[in-house]
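Reviewer 2 asked us to include a model.

Predict the structure of this chain.
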Amino acid sequence: MIKLHSFNTLILACIIITITGSSLLFFWVTVRRNIPFLHLLARCKTCELAKTAARDDFDKGIYQVIRWGMGDTDSPDRSRFQFIHDLYHITTIRGGCSADRGVTCYDNQMRLLLWRNIINDIHPEGRYKMVLKDQRPGYTITLLDSIYYKRYKGKQVSGQIFGKRYNDGSVKIYLYDDEQPTFKTSVDSLLADSFGSTVVELNYSRTDTIPFRTTYAFNLHIQLNEGMLIRIKR
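Predicted model (structure tokens):
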């Protein structure tokens, strides 16, 4: 009887230790995850201070935006969101469910600076014929500042242009379709989640011919095809 009592006591102690340890781990992970937000909260007591903090961080190359709410969503725009953040090295800070006015001012100011000075810093224009290297039929595409239009498989498709200047002086432009294809099987959907949507990467220059290649948003090192954009002159 004594042995059974000791055994039950041991089991109870193990359960208590496990629950306590799990609670402490959850608390530590939660606090650690919220440290960037708490630090930002302390810097954004007023809207003016928040805007100044955003400008200071931007000048230092610290790009961070706020995402309010709990967890990730499976919205169709999630792939584009991740692509933009990976391309420009933007950090997303979780802000919880209740928006703070000061931090919201910081977020709005940072997004404005990013859009004006980095994401939409390059303004390509022109109408081009896309010619694939393997001589497959291409299509006509019109670049217009931050958007583009193309005739593809008998219909007009629009999309956004994202440009990036690299330290070696080169400029690359990425074309991201607004409308993404629907997937017929779960395998296709899983591949899209892993590799990202297909995007067109241009080695941009203001010349009549621009090299391009098609790649994946989350795996830019993978090349699907390549070719040239040839300007259509009026």
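Residues 125-231 form one domain. The chain has five helices and ten strands. We have added this to the supplementary material.
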